[in-house]
Amino acid sequence: VQLQASGGGLVQAGGSLRLSCAASGRNTYSMGWFRQSPGKKREFAATIRYSGNTYYADSVKGRATISRDNAKNTMYLQMDSLKPEDTAVYYCAAKRSPDYSGPYYSETFYDYWGQGTLVTVSS
Q1: pLDDT of 102
Q2: DSSP 8-state secondary structure symbol assigned to residue 60
């Protein structure tokens, strides 16, 4: 499976961006977004199950909406009210099986990773 993340860019604080992650090669199940800010460890942002159930990190809850189009095998992350602290490389990840055991907020839960897309929020 290959994951292609896109949609990053430069945006002013308070603005919005929509990230996309297209999966190719086979169907994927749970999909998620992680992000890594300069000098920090990569952290969980949001995840969505194949069924559509969603979970968010507290840092983005209320400002982010994760969604997916299973027919297109594509996941999205709509980010609103962006803050400078949202500046990061955003990575998409996917799981190859419908196994929901294990913490969805852990990197080890996922089997496949995209290359990342940079989001820069200016103040």
Answers
A1: 79
A2: T
Cα separation, 87 vs 118, in Å, equals 8
Strand partners, 28: none
Provide mean pLDDT across the span 4-25. Answer: 97
Upper half-sphere CA count for residue 116 (Cβ side, 13 Å): 13
d(CA 28, CA 62): 26
pLDDT digits (tens, 9 = 90+) for 16-32: 999 999 999 888 899 99
d(CA 88, CA 40): 9
* Paired tokens of 108: 């080890």
The vertex-66 CA angle with 120 and 105, nearest 5°, equals 85
pLDDT of residue 120: 98
The C-alpha atoms of residue 6 and residue 59 are separated, in whole angstroms, by: 21
Q: Which tokens go with 88?
A: 């990061």
Distances (CA, A) of 56 to 34, 53, 59, 104: 11, 11, 8, 10
- 107: exposed, middle or buried (Cβ count in 10 Å: 0-12, 13-18, 19+): middle
